[in-house]
């Protein structure tokens, strides 16, 4: 193998072979400037005088399992045109970095399938360096997503640790990409987003949110022309929570152990969709027996299943009639949690039916939510919020989907 092929493999250009030696289990490759013409990196002028050299070293791609360090005396010069003394830039590395561009590319490639710690260990460098390389790459591609063409968005929050520390996330529902990550939850977390949106002159048509007041007010204030769509995913989830609440209440009031046991055993069955009940474990039968014993739970269960049809009506008008009927039934059930829920739906009627104008949902975002759990498991996410936010924004990009 000629030395030029060897140096190309190491990603080194513009410098010539001097020596290779083993040192501390790795290889040190010494190279020298190839003596070509120098021009001033500032003004491009050739009116220069050489002024000695500056010693520099870079990590580059390993040979086998041996880490490789490149060492060179980099010429320094004095430019007579612009009166500066620049160090000549090397063609194989960014002037501010301690590694070559080939090394940078290798780190990014390995990160597609290895954890940050594994890459650092494999390349014998610090976790910090690997993260730094990745963070700059992510920043270049995802720090400022294009907002101008946003039409349909969803706003939601995620808990980064159980119960506290929230992030507010805005998703472009057409591209399936997270376009904003804000610290905290509620209206304040969204303020920087509104500013960027305004600057981008975007025309958002519809926003999917849950039925909590905080986001609703923020959206109405900042996007007065957009349609608010209360997200079916969150509505169904909220009703599931009400059903669990009712089951717990009935459990506390149960007259005997049999009723308690039955209520305990049906905890998860209540929340499953009927088509997902496991027949090999007699789940439908168990659920039916439990419902037969608890009239109010049965009423609530069937109303819960029924509500899903709100998003399957042929027209908005039919959906309106369906919703009003559902609210009447829930109110007539005499079950307090259902009555409260019915009131909530009645208050949000317009935004629920707006789904028929813009059938959008954070349903797709919930898929992202699961992916967010992957980088979440890595402690780096917490220590460096900026890096964590970039990772979330890059999630739709296959390259960084799975490895934290
Ligand atoms: Zn110059």
Q: Label the overall shape.
A: elongated
The largest sheet, given as strand count, sense and whether it forms a barrel, is: 5 strands, mixed
Number of helices: 16
Bound molecules: zinc ion
Strand residue percentage: 15-25%
Report the order of strands and helices.
Answer: HEEEEHHHEEEHEHEHHHHHHHHHH
Q: pLDDT average, as an integer? A: 87
Q: Give the low-pLDDT segments.
A: 399-404
- The structure class reads alpha/beta
What is the number of E strands? 9
Tell me the domain tally.
Answer: 3
Q: Helical amount among residues, as a percent range?
A: 40-55%
Q: Compute the separation of the termini in Å.
A: 38 Å
Protein architecture, described:
- The chain is of the alpha/beta class.
- The protein has three domains: 3-97, no CATH class; 152-231 and 361-400, Ribonuclease H-like superfamily/Ribonuclease H (Nucleotidyltransferase, domain 5), CATH 3.30.420; 232-356.
- 46% of the residues lie in helices and 20% in strands.
- The protein has helices at 3-10, 101-111, 116-123, 127-142, 187-200, 213-222, 232-253, 257-265, 283-293, 295-307, 316-332, 336-347, 349-353, 363-377, 380-383, 385-393, and strands at 15-23, 26-33, 48-63, 66-79, 152-161, 164-172, 177-183, 206-209, 227-230.
- It has a five-stranded mixed beta sheet with strand order 7-6-5-8-9, with helices on both faces. A four-stranded mixed beta sheet has the order 1-2-4-3.
- Strand 3 (48-63) and strand 4 (66-79) form a beta hairpin.
- The longest helix has 22 residues, at 232-253.
- Zinc ion is lined by residues 40, 42-43, 45, 79, 81-82, 84.
- Residues 40, 42-43, 45, 79, 81-82, 84 line the site of zinc ion.
